[in-house]
Amino acid sequence: MYLLLFFVTLSFVSYCASDKNEKSESGSAFETEYQWTFINFTWNNEEDHKNAVATKKYIPENNAMAGIKFYKNNFYIAMPRVRDGTPVTLGYISTENSTKINPRIKPFPNWEMNELGDCDHLESVQSMEVDKNGTMWVLDGFRIKNNQCPPKLILFDLNDDNKILQDFTFPEWICLSRGGFLNDIVIDDNDGDFAYITDNSPIDPGLIVYSREQNRAWKIRDASMFPEIDASNFVVGGLEFKALAPIDGIALSPNRNGSRFVFYCSLSGLNLYAIRTDILKSEETCLGGFWRYEVKKIGQKQAQSDGLVVDNKGDLYYGLLPLHGVGKWNIYKPFSTAEIVAQNNETMIWTDSFALDDKGFLYLLANNIHKFFDSDYKLEISDEVKFRILKLFTSSKSYLY
Ligand SMILES: *[C@@H]1O[C@H](CO)[C@@H](O)[C@H](O)[C@H]1NC(C)=O
Ligand SMILES: *[C@@H]1O[C@H](CO)[C@@H](O)[C@H](O)[C@H]1NC(C)=O
Ligand SMILES: *[C@@H]1O[C@H](CO)[C@@H](O)[C@H](O)[C@H]1NC(C)=O
Ligand SMILES: *[C@@H]1O[C@H](CO)[C@@H](O)[C@H](O)[C@H]1NC(C)=O
Ligand SMILES: *[C@@H]1O[C@H](CO)[C@@H](O)[C@H](O)[C@H]1NC(C)=O
Q1: Is the pLDDT of residue 326 over 50?
Q2: Which CATH class is domain 31-393?
């Protein structure tokens, strides 16, 4: 019955949407907006920079970026501490700055909060989301190195001096202090604000639900969140990715009449899945077993993906890692209409995180991140561009709007 409801809801919304929406702009290609050969920061002074290099607190070639989000003329950038020598794990650049090549990143909210050795600070951030109220929900939960602090979620008010509004430390039974990997987050502003979070942990992968109102979290674990053995071992930018990586990408449908859906997929996998948010929002339901009937297999993507995003038109964009490209599917249409919208084996090496701005642009971070995760891979600073933020005009906004 629920499955039937799913289709009825989707086709109903589809019918309504196609009446109103104009044909989307197409044919435009992604263009490079920012590029980096290595990451450097806005040091307070030359002394700090020199000390950081001398003490190996900063090893320039080891710094990587993994998550991007846009809010009010800033790009916020997550830099998980994948390798040693990463002095800053969350920072930002201003779009008002005309520097587009190797722009230096400013620590967020400041240097102190990025210092290691205090569990109230940011230890290793993989992703974040900014809601309509300008609250940034930061996932400090990359815990697959020798980490010291339990994973946590911290809410900063970007409109009030980056004040901390709330924080939540995940208990061991929801996300492991050693072996947990809070990977990506979407925000649902219905019923008192919820976050849905993927835990890419190789030990205990799953989908975490956090209620802001209750300041509580719970987790569901399902076979659909495991890696698919048949879809492992793929090559991106000439380097094989061998890890068996579970649930990673997550996206939320826009707030229209009817049910909302969370979409997710395993990194080492081809299948895209969905589940209704009203199922997720009930802790009681999630602690039972019947919710498994509600996991809906949407279809098989053309390739493995890392990040996903849905815009306010219902277009779901997904990275196509080994195809060095991006796919798109409108969630109100059959999955057979999914298409590859861009491919570039020079600029799209590991298509990772997506962001939408307020001017109709979609941004994509391509970041070579598998090279940073592969400890046998020798990183060095060269002319090779390691990170790009590419942009595409879609005339849409985020699913939040
Ligand atoms: C990083 O920036 C500092 C100035 O803030 C500069 O002195 C240094 O040369 C830069 N590092 C590299 C590797 O270019
Ligand atoms: C603009 O970026 C450059 C290079 O990263 C930096 O030196 C400069 O301080 C930035 N300016 C502003 C106003 O942020
Ligand atoms: C933002 O604020 C409004 C009211 O001020 C509230 O209803 C909403 O749930 C808040 N949260 C998000 C995520 O937008
Ligand atoms: C949603 O439903 C309400 C009440 O049935 C209606 O007033 C409103 O116009 C609907 N909105 C959309 C976007 O269909
Ligand atoms: C880029 O992709 C095309 C088409 O798949 C392929 O023929 C070409 O060899 C690739 N180039 C590089 C540098 O990998």
Answers
A1: yes
A2: mainly beta
